[in-house]
Amino acid sequence: MTTVSDLPDLDELRREAAGCTRCELYEPATQTVFGEGPPSAWLMMVGEQPGDREDVEGAPFVGPAGRVLDKALERAGIDRSEVYVTNAVKHFRFERQGKRRIHKTPGVTHIRACRHWLDGELAAVRPAALATLGAVAGKALMGSGFAITKERGKVLEWEGHRLVPTVHPSSILRGPPEARDEALDALVADLRVAAGLRP
Length: 199
Ligand code: URA
Description:
Elements: H1 10-17, E1 43-47, H2 52-57, H3 64-75, E2 83-87, E3 94-97, E4 100-103, H4 108-125, E5 129-133, H5 135-142, H6 148-151, E6 156-158, E7 161-166, H7 169-174, H8 180-195
Parallel strand pairs: 1-2, 1-5, 5-7
Antiparallel strand pairs: 3-4, 6-7
């Protein structure tokens, strides 16, 4: 039987992850961006990887995509303080263009190397439900056959968890301005499906 003392401690995991060298992404990145939220969270949201702002601040979804996420969560009736927010990959992968650091999609090797930390977070938080944000996070968990357009907003079974995939909040910012309201409404609708899984 698993007792509470056998469960991994999130703070301990965070401390270990701060020194992670499981793949090469740690070298140019500022720091590991571990998940954040209460260990008692009923919902775990998994994004792709920290962005430029997150890399500097050391916290997930605190930049422009995070602001869209916060707005969508509020409209879906989910308080961010009840959610554990993390990423499939915990270092920012980027390319330098002059002074700018341009996001580069993480590869399978980065996702695999980082799975250790996601598994630790799952074991420590034991959320009632999961939500993946974007195609990369969806594929990271459910494999390369995962198709976001087909699966978004559905309740799927994944490794004993109920999981609702949705789009990445930054896709709304990247889309045409005239399509943003509709895209945000669709993200909110998906998050309402996740809200329906609250115990
Ligand atoms: N995009 C992500 O996938 N995660 C973050 O933390 C920020 C932006």
